[in-house]
Structures are given as structure tokens and as C-alpha cells.
Amino acid sequence: MAENPDIKAEVQTPKAATNPADNKVYLPRQWPQRLLGSLFVLALMAAAASVTVTIKESLVSKQFESWQQDFYDFTDKLGFTVDEIVVQGRRRTSKQELMQAIAVSREDNIFEVDVYALQQRLEQLPWVRKAAVKKTFLPNVINITLQEKKVQSLWQISEKFHPIDEDGKVIEADYVPDKPLLLIVGAGAPENINSLLKIIQQDKGIYQRVKVANFISKRRWNLVLDDIRDGITIKLPEEDVEKAWKKLIKLNTTKGILKRKLTILDLRFKGKIGIKLRKTPGNPDVKLNGGRERNT
Fold first, then answer.
1. Which of 22, 31, 36, 266 could bridge across to 274 with cysteines, CB 3.0–4.6 Å?
2. What is the pLDDT of residue 290?
3. Residue extents of the structural domains in the chain
């Protein structure tokens, strides 16, 4: 069939493809303001909740205190008041300090006595190492057992004397010795005395002769045996103290070195010792380890 020239076919030109990105709608950026607003509202809600809880806790606390006081008043009438306070183990703690720490008297309600708080107050006293507090009822008695500190040595510093306990700590209290004590001298001596005692107590015979332990320049010890003024001075090294002390024990066991009339015995040298004899007429040389030590 022939084409009709008068009829023109319409050819539609294809439209350009639409870009998906052109279909997005952008809203104004308001999220920072919304976030800040939300945080502000949350803060107001938290503050309101906190105030509410505080008020409730205050009311509950007041109500509880009221009930507690009613209980104490009721038990007072039933006779639950302190009849006696019994203290055991007190030797050096003064009665005045003790009563101030206890802060309880007869006729106080025994239920009202805080055992833990009382124990804490007692253990703050200078001479008290540990305290145990118990309550018994009918009869209503507060039983207190004290474990007081023991004086291990006497520390001399700046021409003053301070008692030192078993832990090497200063007891902040007046003290008059009632028995002979080891005198320690020098800054830092209390903190280091226990490590020294572990070593020199290995030989009880020598240890009992030690009268003074002098901490030299916070580094090493000098020990004075027998007499504070005219005894034997043993100079210990800064390091390997135990090794030097065992050497002294061996020399004393085999050679009786500490029976000699010495003034100084110096253990600071490796492989040898230095001695100084007391000045007396006709001092003989002292033989040690197959050799001779001069009187220097």
C-alpha cells in the first residue's frame, strides 16, 4: 500500500531523563535548635525530679527520726539505759582522754550508743592500737577492750625523745620509760628501724647488748653495744647489711671478737674488717682470719 504523502507521521522527541536528585526537598536545618531545646527540657525534668526526691527524702528522714526518738523514749521507760561501762586493757591511756572519747554516761539509752563510732573514736587515741566495743542487755553494759601500743624503742631527734611503737611509728604522747629501751637516733630512724631489727635479732646475745642505733645520713646504721658513752661502735654498711651482720656473728662465735676491748668495729669493707682497740697499756695485736688487724 502506497504511503500517503499528505499524512505526516508525528515523531515524538524523547524527553531527557529526570535526575532523582532534583526530586529531593530540603527543609531548613533546625536540628541543632531542636537538640538544644530537648536537652533543656530534659534538664528541667531532672531538676524537678531531684527536688521532688529531696523533699520526699527529707520528709521520710524527719518521719524516721521522729519514730526513732519515740522508740528511744519508750525503751528508756522500760529500763534500757546504760548501767555500767567496763574498760579492760587500759594502762597508759589517761582516764580523762578515755572518757572524752567514750562520750557516754549512765542513764543514756543503750540502743542509742553507736558501737562502730565509739570504736573509731577510741582508736584515735595516741596509745590505743585496737579497740573492741560490745553491748550487753539486762544488765545494760558497754564492754570496751583496749589493745594499747607497745613501745619498741625511744627516738631522739632535735634533743627530744619520742616513743616508737612496733610498727616504727611515733606515739604522739608523753612517755617516761619504765624499763631499758633501744635508743634510736637520727632523721628517718623510726621508718627504717624494723628492717634493721629483723637482721640484728638473729643473734639474741648480741642484740641484747645493743643500746643505741644511730641512723647516719639516712643511709646506714652505727650500733653501740654495752654502754652509750664507752661501748663498742659497730659500723654497718649501706648495702648487704645482713651479710655483714652474719660475718660479725661468725667472728664472735669463732674468735670472740666482741669480748675484746674494742671501741670501733667497722664492717663497711668487703673482705675485711677494721677495728680500733681501747687505749690501755700494752694492747696486743688481735689475730683474725689467720692475719693481724692493726689498732686502727
1. 266
2. 46
3. 84-148, 153-293
